[in-house]
Task: inverse folding
């Protein structure tokens, strides 16, 4: 039989999530300050630097929001933390494990919902949830079935759980991907725009689930373009632009840095640049 770490590598390379069996014991580091720690993390694609010496830390039990314009390097950063992409320079640790040299140990503590979930279309949602649970060697007992049912019900996809995933809408695919990421109760949850395309009820449910998990000391790193969600949910926000951290702090700290009672949207647009009103006016002039 294959050793568990081999299974882990195969699973990580052929599915979009990285998770752990509840039965693999992960050593605790009681004095750990950051559950996620990136130090000068850098990723180049050829001559282009997508992530540029990014340093940040996420403390246990914190929701950290990674914000930034399209192409600013959020997903690339997350993929490096997950061990799915090798950093060109710099280091990153998850629960104290180096994501390159201790990638198996690091992957074991993480759950991940990617920006574009790649799912097995010929499985039903229910089969997929069980397939993931099997991979993490969660016993096929009543508790497991109840937990899967609970997550499917909470996310309003229980009724569709016997349908093939190929019939799922974008929002439903994201929801089943979240179910799969949470099944093994990861200590570190990485969510790349999980709320995109989710209906208001689903978004509110996800918010409540994540808040609840945070209270149980899960550490969450999420990216979103919905600034209202970031403002409401995140203990700390990092704004990146062209791969660099340009502002970081709690909402209160960001407001203090911006020297005013600004909304996160106003702070974001001030830092990363707002719409070009002149060009928009010119365009509208042309079309009218
Ligand atoms: N495999 C790749 N090869 C070449 N360039 C890449 C690759 N992956 C990402 N990039 C580039 O790196 C930059 C950062 O991309 P990334 O996907 O991290 O941005 P993002 O902040 O997640 O954007 P979005 O908000 O649109 O999701 C972009 O310019 C992108 O084109
Ligand atoms: Mg992205």
Result:
């Amino acid at each position: 039989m294959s050793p568990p770490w081999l299974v882990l590598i195969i699973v990580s390379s052929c599915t979009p999530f990285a998770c752990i069996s509840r039965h693999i014991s992960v050593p605790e580091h009681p004095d750990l300050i950051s559950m996620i720690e990136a130090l000068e993390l850098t990723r180049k694609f050829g001559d282009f630097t997508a992530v540029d010496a990014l340093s940040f830390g996420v403390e246990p039990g914190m929701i950290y929001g990674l914000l930034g314009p399209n192409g600013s390097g959020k997903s690339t950063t997350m993929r490096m933390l997950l061990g799915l992409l090798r950093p060109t320079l710099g280091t990153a640790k998850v629960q104290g494990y180096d994501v390159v040299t201790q990638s198996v140990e690091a992957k074991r503590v993480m759950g991940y919902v990617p920006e574009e979930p790649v799912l097995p279309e010929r499985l039903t949602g229910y089969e997929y949830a069980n397939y993931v649970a099997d991979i993490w060697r969660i016993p096929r007992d009543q508790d497991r079935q109840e937990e899967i049912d609970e997550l499917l019900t909470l996310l309003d996809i229980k009724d569709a759980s016997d349908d093939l995933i190929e019939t799922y809408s974008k929002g439903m695919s994201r929801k089943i991907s979240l179910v799969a990421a949470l099944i093994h109760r990861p200590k570190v949850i990485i969510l790349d725009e999980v709320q995109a395309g989710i209906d208001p009820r689903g978004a509110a449910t996800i918010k409540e689930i994540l808040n609840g998990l945070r209270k149980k000391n899960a550490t969450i790193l999420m990216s979103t373009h919905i600034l209202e969600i970031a403002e409401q949910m995140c203990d700390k926000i990092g704004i990146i632009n062209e791969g660099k951290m340009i502002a970081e702090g709690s909402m209160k700290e960001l407001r203090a840095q911006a020297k005013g009672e600004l909304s996160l949207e106003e702070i974001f647009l001030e830092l990363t640049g707002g719409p070009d009103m002149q060009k928009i006016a010119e365009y509208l002039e042309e079309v009218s």
